Amino acid sequence: MECWLARDLQHLLCYGKWDNFQSVISKAKTACEISGHAIGDHFAEVGKMVDLGSGSPGQAAW
Length: 62
Prior knowledge:
Elements (H helix, E strand, L loop, with lengths): L5 H7 L5 H17 L13 E4 L5 E5 L1
Antiparallel strand pairs: 1-2
């Protein structure tokens, strides 16, 4: 199985801002559903933990 993280694809597809790319992902999910495919078979909600300045674990960054 081959998988890609959206944050990695964002830069390859020349999207400088995550918010702009997130709307593209939303449209792709809609297209997937309309074409009769299960969104869960093609898109996984994956969060990435970010470090806080204090050194303590942070929250997931989508």
